[in-house]
Amino acid sequence: MIPCWRYLRSxxxxxxxxxVASVIWLLLDMAVLRLSVRDVNTRLLKERVxxxxxxxxxxxxxxxxxxxxxxxxVVKQEVSDKVSDGVDVQPVGLYxxxxxxxxxxxxxxxxxxxxxxxxxxxxxxxVDLQNGVEKNDSVALSRRAVNAKIIxxxxxxxxxxxxxxxxxxxxKEQPPxxxxxxxxxxxxxxxxxxxxxxSSAKDEKLQLQNNSIVAHPVKASVHQVxxxxxxxxxxxxxxxxxxxxxxxxxxxxxxxxxQRWNEGxxxxxxSEQIPLDRAIPDxxxxxxxxxxxxxxLPSTSVILCFVDxxxxxxxxxxxxxLNRSPPHLxxxxxxxxxxxxxxxxxxxxxxxxxxxxxxxxxxxxxxQGLIRARMAGAAVATGEVLTFLDSHVECNVGWLEPLLERIxxxxxxxxxxxxxxxxxxxxxxxxxDNFQRGIFTWPLxxxxxALSDEYVKKNNMTAADPIRCPVMAGGLFSIDKKYFYxxxxxxxxxxxxxGENMEISFKVWMCGGQIEIxxxxxxxxxxxxxxxxxxPNDRRKTVERNLARVAEVWLDEYKELFYGxxxxxxxxNIVSDIGDLSQQIQLRAKLKCKSFKWYLDNVYPELEAPLVxxxxxxxxxxxxxxxxxxxxxxxxxxxxLSKQSQHFNYTWLKQIRQEDMCVDHNEGRLILQxxxxxxxxxxxxxxxxxxxxxxxxxxxxxxxxxxxEVIKSSKVHxxxxxxxxxxxxxxxxxxxxxYAQ
Length: 741
Ligand code: LR7
Ligand code: MN
What we know:
Blueprint: H1 2-9, H2 11-51, H3 64-72, H4 101-112, H5 129-132, H6 137-142, E1 150-151, H7 199-209, E2 222-224, H8 254-261, H9 268-273, E3 292-294, E4 300-306, H10 311-324, E5 330-337, H11 347-353, E6 359-363, H12 369-380, E7 385-389, E8 393-395, H13 400-409, E9 413-422, E10 429-432, E11 436-441, E12 445-450, H14 453-458, E13 467-468, E14 477-480, H15 481-486, H16 500-510, E15 514-526, H17 539-554, H18 559-564, H19 582-590, H20 596-602, E16 612-620, E17 626-630, E18 633-637, E19 648-651, E20 656-658, E21 661-666, E22 669-674, E23 684-685, E24 698-701, E25 704-711, E26 718-722, E27 733-738
Parallel strand pairs: 4-5, 4-7, 5-6, 9-15
Antiparallel strand pairs: 1-10, 2-3, 7-14, 8-15, 9-10, 11-12, 13-15, 16-19, 16-27, 17-18, 19-20, 20-21, 21-22, 23-24, 24-25, 25-26
Helix pairs in contact: 16-17
Bound molecules: ligand LR7 and manganese (II) ion.
Residues 390, 392, 475, 525 line the site of manganese (II) ion.
């Protein structure tokens, strides 16, 4: 006891004891910690792997995940084929995946320096394709491509200034859109955009971005967006068009080039020289690569419909999907051949695609048009989400997950990528301006519209934030499959091409969904001047008819604006039969969709959409009194705004209307008749910019023009049709208010 006491009393010994105890404690602690760290590490292994994926910009290490992915994409593509119809098909496996750093570095340099890339085979005497090829300018101008602003990738800075075209419009803050009952099971927290203002979301994002993954436990349910790209280290960096750079055709080949042009109305000859799995510049805004998405995103079926598509562009589209989509999210690619005439799109295509287990082909036995062809693809799709693409696209790095993420968060959202431009002339891949949305002007003409700086600032928008989109371009979007069918898919009565983008857009918005452009998802598309395929009926008539169907079903009273902007002739049923609409009208009622007025007020308030061109009193400048109605008869009296009997509308259909009665003429006398859109005698030209008689009310009378005139009389003034006289004040009329020209 005493020796022990002595021992403990010595301070040296006490210190020694404490030291030994601490060491033992520490060892035990570390063992426990190791176990838990291993657990966390396993869960986060995926994140680490992902972080290594960005080969294009950072390094060329190939991770195990990348290996698997490459196996499923590029490596399998080493298929060479030759097709009939005299079209030589270039072997896809032109490139070997290179691991040497020098090559990757070389590639990276080239991305930033377009002038360095000169395709070996065509370097001699390049021809300026812009000038070398004739193009139908008038057609090209009326098309959509002209609207997209292009930024050369090499010069482009993310988030470049906003460009305004069409009518520049200040975008007002949007009231929240009412939610669908559909959403109940979909209230998930967005990891990026939606939550970006909360500090916890920010922290989470930061944790995922830096490497201290063990120190900070992270929600296992999200990961950094996968930047998979099997073409990141292309096997032939000097190939024509590699990295999406502009390419040229040597002058000796310019005849061939011109001969091939009309096969696709783009540079088909050049496209054939370009590798089917070429690399393209990553045009996403910089912040996109760091965004996180949920682990359990829905899978998608990618549906590409085509009719007589050019071989090289069709295959390049497919390879871009295979090469840049996470395999676990890509359920299948469904190619719908809309009864093409080209022979290479039959057995040769089947044979070629047999090498890719995910690709399925449907050959339609009759021409259906792109709308019904898409529905045929959707009908056999097994993915949870449908992703529609045109058949001449190139999907960019990380294109898919940001689209699926939006649908995962809310399945009534329809997500569209930003559509970059693949030049029809030199096949270069060009980045377009951020902050653009799809809109329409009358008569349902699609266009792009840049968000105003003010709107971007006010909403504190980053370059990665989704953009609310009143209408989509049409060809490229992801939609939840169940939701697509819940909406009744497309109107199957729409033929061949056109108008379906309006239909799906109105339907989505008015029936509870939303359409967004996702700037972190980019897909290039070849914009061309003409459709390279036949329209079974007249192209113009087909599109007009489709639009009229859409207007009749969705525009309510605003359909007059559509007809009034150059489509009046469609109202004449004898000339145009737009088909049975009862199913579509029933569907709208069944879905309890909101009114078009609601859509205008809430989704697209910037659109000018006055229901009438002019309204109020109808004042005669000679008589200096106003038109009025008493007991169904027209007469004149002292102007008095408070009298409803003096109120008339001048409508988009050019009627002068009071309630259901319209000013008509019969053997020169003016009378009131029940309004009817078919009756052309009810049309009055007024304030027409083309007319030499802008103040007049001009009627078409048996092919001749006649003007509304009042003859002053001491008893009853006479209202009649007279030969037009530009100077007569008794033929000049004015409405109180004008709303449109
Ligand atoms: O009868 C047909 N059958 C088809 O399968 C007609 C066409 N198609 C295919 C065709 O091969 C192509 O793959 O359908 C696809 C679209 O046809 P395009 O490429 O001739 O159309 P586009 O790019 O000129 O037109 C746009 O508007 C169309 C209106 O119906 C469709 O919505 C297109 O998908 C759409 N394209 C885009 O949105 C891409 C970006 C253009 C913009 C802006
Ligand atoms: Mn297209």
